[in-house]
Amino acid sequence: ELSSARAAMTSSALPRRHLLIALAGAGLLPPARACDFFSSHLRIWHPWTRATRVDADTAKLCMRFDEVRQTDRLIGVETPVAAGARLAGPGAPDGTQDLSLLIRAGQELTLTEDGLHIELLDLQQPLQVGRSFALRLIFESAGPVEALLNVDYAGLR
């Protein structure tokens, strides 16, 4: 099967879909899931936030980090819907705009609305249910990971 995957990679006549199917069939790609994103050290599962009111200037970004093979630190979040981001909730440093979230090897870390989370600052537009936006998570060791921010739940906040 590996030879068929290599043949698919070299053939420009085959559509991209056929190439991906061949690579997955040869075991060269991890199974894709819509809300999973991977760095070289860990998995990011389902980055989401609630819908916001028209006049909201912040939103809570939640997600889970698991399959952590090497300790790393989340040091930045970029998205076109917010001008900045900071760590917020219980255990977050007070009065700082810095984002520095330690993610330890062998542990799972879940960011929740009522617990530790990332606060998106200076929203550029209201967030509507069902929309998805580009999200770049920047890690100290693993570098940037391109993901999607899903607006999954209606909120009154």
Which tags fit this structure?
single chain; mainly beta; 10 strands
Question: Can you walk through the features of this model?
Answer:
The chain has 157 residues and is mainly beta. Helix content is 12%, strand content 42%. A hairpin with a 3-residue loop joins strand 9 and strand 10. The N and C termini lie far apart (53 Å).
Question: What would a concise description of this structure say?
Answer:
This protein is mainly beta.
Topology:
Blueprint: H1 2-10, H2 16-25, E1 36-38, E2 43-50, E3 58-66, E4 72-78, E5 82-88, E6 101-103, E7 109-111, E8 117-123, E9 132-139, E10 143-153
Parallel strand pairs: 2-10
Antiparallel strand pairs: 1-2, 2-3, 3-7, 3-8, 4-6, 4-9, 5-8, 9-10
Helix pairs in contact: 1-2
Q: What fraction, in percent, of the residue positions are helical?
A: 10-25%
* Biggest β-sheet description: 10 strands, mixed
Please mark out the parts with pLDDT under 50 across 5 or more consecutive residues, or reply none: 1-14, 29-33
Individual helix count:
2
Radius of gyration: 18 Å
